Amino acid sequence: MRVLNRGGFANADVLWVERGGRSLIVKDWSRRAPWVRLLLAPLLVRHELAMLGRASGLPGVPRSQGRVGRLALAMERLPGVPLAGRIHALSLPPAFFDALDGIVDGLALRGLYYLDLASPSNILVLPGGAPALVDLGSATGVPLPGVLLRRLRSRALAKLRRRYEQQPGASPRLPAPSGMAPRQLDLGRVRFRLRDFGPASDPVPILFLHDAGGTGALWTPWLLGADRAGRRMLAPDLPRFGGSRAPRGSLAPARLARWLERLLDVARIKRVDVVGAGWGAVLARALAVRCAARVRIAAALPAQGDSLDQWLLEHWRAARDDPPALRESLRAGLPDVLPDAARAELERALDRAPDALLCRAWLDLPLAVARDGAARLRMRESARPWLDLGEDATLAAAARQPERLLDALAALATELP
Fold first, then answer.
1. Closest C-alpha among 174, 383, 230, 393 to residue 304
2. Cα 84-125-72 angle, rounded to 5 deg
3. Fewer beta carbons under 10 A from the terminal one: N or C of the chain?
4. CA–CA dist 261, 250 (Å, integer)
5. Cα-based angle 94, 97, 98 (whole degrees, multiple of 5)
6. Whole-model pTM above 0.85?
7. Nearest to 76, CA basis, from 86, 89, 66, 68
8. What whole-number distance in Å separates Cα of residue 415 and Cα of residue 410?
9. In the chain, what are the domain boundaries?
10. What CATH fold (topology level) applies to the domain 81-164?
11. Closest listed residue to residue 235, CA positions, set 288, 190, 187, 180
């Protein structure tokens, strides 16, 4: 199961569920407030099922798969990508919007009036480039004045065209394959940009945590092999870096570990293996300390034990005394086997990270420095197993042989009680 969107107030959580060889979308209100579950959610479930039933067989609209208990409903999953500025901005041909208008016409012929056409998240771009319309909870069967409907519809389509219609002379683009493009997962005060690859049935996914200034693209060598390895892999952009958003303030590992725990809660993930690189390795340790029962195994790159502490100390000193040197060191540490697109994304993210933010990530580390210059993290040791990949286990070396890390995780997992 994957959580595609976390609902708020009276909105459902949207889940991608694989059951019996079928791929379903489930809208679930079971985590809303008690009064919503008692009074509003059953009405919303009944309404959307009724709308799906009346639209059954219309191309570009998902088919209903019925009620799932009292507070959820299921529909077929259409293999499309929601409209998003990063992917589809000024790239869709005019025919796309003509076809979308045709879907709305088809609903109207069945007595259904779609009222939220302006929301990009309700519109999918299918692999062949055709549109699909989801969230029929936004439709109504109550007749409305024709003038009002035409005005709402024309305004919504005009807004979508301004944002997404291909400009004359531009080359057409197709969307990224479904499941490949990062998505946003809103937790309220924090919003994570998340890559989620591999089979949703994996009971213990791998959570990858990147270095300061980077994004989840750092883990591309592993993510691209997720299906082949049979492992689900999650690589978020950590708060305030890349495409993630979070309140201003400390970047102390303990604070970020609370946000990562919340991410696991919202994604409905019970247990994980955690792998961190550089600054992300400290967050992996903090998460393992905070969620001892939830983290099965933790691993750090590029080093282990004292060598990791000394590596962190060097970057802590650069953050204090020479921010440009810190930025260049992080850039030099990017694996040389990264695909061009992933490297370009990481370099852009590093360039855009302000000096103050980048330095704060390191200066907020709980490092203790002895008189002899040795450093240690002033953090509790995790009770979870800590995977030792050997002295040559740098991030660059691991990226050249991504299966080595996966094999080591699997071998240690078999030794656990």
1. 393
2. 85
3. C
4. 17
5. 85
6. yes
7. 66
8. 9
9. 2-76, 81-164, 183-415
10. Transferase(Phosphotransferase); domain 1 (1.10.510)
11. 180
Contact (Cβ atoms closer than 8 angstroms) between residue 303 and residue 394: yes
Q: How many CB atoms lie within 10 A of CB 373?
A: 8
pLDDT tens digits for the chain (417 residues)? 899 999 888 999 999 998 878 899 999 999 999 999 999 999 999 999 999 999 999 999 999 999 999 999 999 999 888 887 667 878 889 999 999 999 999 999 999 999 899 888 899 999 888 999 999 999 999 888 888 888 989 999 999 999 999 877 665 554 444 445 688 898 888 999 999 999 988 999 999 999 999 999 999 999 999 999 999 999 999 999 999 999 998 999 999 999 999 999 999 999 999 999 989 999 999 999 999 999 999 988 864 344 677 778 888 999 999 999 999 999 988 998 999 989 999 999 999 999 999 999 999 998 888 777 777 778 887 776 778 776 557 788 888 889 999 999 999 999 887
Task: List C-alpha distances in Å: 385 to 257, 258, 381.
Answer: 18, 20, 10
> Does CATH place domain 2-76 in 3.30.200.20?
yes
- The token pair at 357 is 């933010």
Residues 6+ apart with CB under 8 A from 75: 24, 25, 27, 52, 62, 63, 64, 65, 134
Q: What are phi and psi of 83, to 5 degrees?
A: -55, 130
Q: How many helices, marked H, and strands, marked E, lie in the chain?
A: 15, 19
What CATH class is the domain 183-415?
A: alpha beta
DSSP state letter for 250: -
User: Which spans in 200-322 are helix H?
Assistant: 220-223, 226-229, 253-266, 279-290, 306-321
Q: Which two tokens stand for residue 197?
A: 């690859």
Q: For 347-414, give the secondary structure using H, E and C.
A: HHHHHHCCHHHHHHHHHCCCEEECCCCCEEECCCCCCCCEECCCCCCCHHHHHHCHHHHHHHHHHHHH
Residue bearing tokens 């952009």: 237
139-140 and 113-114 beta bridge pairing: antiparallel
Contact 58, 115 (CB under 8 A): no
Q: Are 406 and 229 in contact (CB under 8 A)?
A: yes
Is the four-CA dihedral 349, 190, 181, 107 of positive or negative sign? negative
Task: Give the angle 368-370-374 at the CA atoms, nearest 5°.
Answer: 90
